[in-house]
Amino acid sequence: MKKIVISLAAALAATTAFAGGLLTTTNQNAHSLRFFAQDADINLTSLYANPAGQAFLNKGWHISASAMTAMQSRSIATTCPLYAFKDGQTTHNFKGNAFAPVVPSFDFAYVQDKWSVSAHFGVVAGGGTCEFENGLGSLEALAAKMIYDGVVPELTKGLGQMGVPAEQIPTKVNQLFRYNLQSSMTGTQNYFGFQVGGTYKIIDNLSAYVGVRGVYATCGYTGGIENMKYSVDGGQNYSALPASKPSNIALDCQQSGFGVTPIIGIHYRPIKGLEIAAKYEFMTKINLTNKTTPESAVATSLLPLYKDGNKVRTDMPALLNIGAQYRPIENVKLAASWRYYFDKSATKDGYAGDQKINMNDLIDNNTMEFLASAEWKFCKWVAASLSWQNTSYGLSNAYMSDTDFNLSSNSIGGGFRIYPCKLLIIDLGYMHTFYQDRTVTSEATKMTNLYSRTNDVVGVGLNFAF
User: Of 112, 155, 226, 391, which is least packed with CB atoms within 10 Å of its CB?
Assistant: First the structure.
């Protein structure tokens, strides 16, 4: 019973993400969808990736607004022998769909000769809602085991009393015992970031940035198991579980918290046409406070982590990104970036059995990303771009589960920048991610999971300068 609730609570932490580390979302606007390697780019729309570069913008006011739409699916094929007692199949497929219709971002900068001030607002982690209409494999397996353990011993005893030979009892049990249940869960995660800072041009070709980001996190987890029941006549008739074993388990928990991220950056222009920049974001410590409904009393009595008022640690890791950009000719720019996420140094509360643990202790290596982009302004009014990104996670098999999995991937993106007039620039971007499927077998549970994901994001941005 206790293990079922633990799985239920953890499984709801599923949500969408665009690109970045285990929690961090680095695609912040339509420009970032079409030109990934922004880390040395001179653009207001590159403020998130290269804040120190704002010093090299034209003097005056710069304002940008962008909206993205993300569509993601998570598929898990779970193999468990107990599933055969439901429908005769040992492999069940579980799919979660995440959809974020509008993910907004805003950028602002005011630039003078030596200094500039800037601000950015966006969704810096999470970003949407993911719904598993038929729950997750680990949840169903644990519920099936609870029903099996509560029914089969009595069924076995009864068959023996009826004179069925001992060697025939297992076969008879397989013919007679069946279980059924309904399970669903929905998770929402949004980490809103508001960043402010200043850039100073130390010399004509060198600038530095200091800023801070406030992160407000809001998460909601709802779901459960309903109508757990069993049959001992091959599925002809089903009975409810005894009153001592609730047939319904529900959790409705809302979480919120706040964290602060100090940020520093530097931008260097050694020769004409070449840009080099780096940015470091310090770790963001976030404690989420639970607000859990009284109807979740059964669940929270077994899982203190989700009790009303309790705090759950979910840090955003520190991030280092380094980039270079070069213009071989005036209307062409080539860029490359490297990003490193200090996942192992952050803290993420989780459970292993009955013990509270730091999930990031199960990470073998920190996350790394390599990015490359090219843009060609082929006429006065339009520029086209193409990008590639590789994200490599160092997650151990022990970290991976249907409640929390990430897959290494390659992404491609592209789009257009349109210049309709002197004051306005329009960005149109699209990104698709190719994930590497991964199969993991748990030595503890003897279950096997095949993990798959899909991801598509489109965006449009409006940029003004005056």
Answer: 112
Q: Which residues of the chain have pLDDT under 70?
A: 1-20, 299, 301-303, 352-354
Q: What is the CA radius of gyration of the chain?
A: 26
**Three-state secondary structure of the chain:** CHHHHHHHHHHCCCCCCCCCCCCECCCCCHHHHHCCCCCCCCCHHHCCCCHHHHHHCCCEEEEEEEEEEEEEEEEEEEECHHHHHHHCCCEEEEEEEEEEEEEEEEEEEEECCCEEEEEEEEEEEEEEEEEECCCCHHHHHHHHHHHHHHHHHHHHHHHHHCCCCHHHHHHHHHHHCEEEEEEEEEEEEEEEEEEEEEEEEEECCEEEEEEEEEEEEEEEEEEEEEEEEEECCCCCCCEECCCCCCCCEEEEEEEEEEEEEEEEEEEECCCCCEEEEEEEECCECCEEEEEECHHHHHHHHHCHHHCCCCEEEECECCEEEEEEEEEEECCEEEEEEEEEECHHHCCEEEEECCEEEEHHHHEEEEEEEEEEEEEECCCCCEEEEEEEEEEEEEECCCCCECCECCCCEEEEEEEEEEEEECCEEEEEEEEEEEECCEEEECCCCCCEEEEEEEEEEEEEEEEEEC
Question: What is the rounded distance in angstroms from the CA atom of residue 2 to the CA atom of residue 292?
Answer: 18
The residues, ordered by sequence, that sit 6+ positions from 339 with a Cβ below 8 Å of its Cβ are: 20, 26, 39, 319, 320, 321, 322, 368, 369, 371
Token pair listed for 81: 């022998």
| Per-residue confidence (pLDDT) for residue 9, from 0 to 100 | 40
* pLDDT at residue 303, rounded to an integer: 66
- Predicted TM-score (pTM) of this structure: 0.90
- Predicted pLDDT at 353: 63
- How far apart CA 313 and CA 111 sit, in angstroms, is 38
Per-residue pLDDT at 16: 45
Distance CA 125, CA 103 (A): 11
**Residues 283-298: tens digit of each pLDDT:** 999 999 999 998 877 7
Instruction: Report the alpha-carbon distance of residue 93 to residue 74 in Å, rounded.
Output: 11
Task: Check if the beta carbon of residue 369 is closer than 8 Å to that of residue 22.
Answer: no
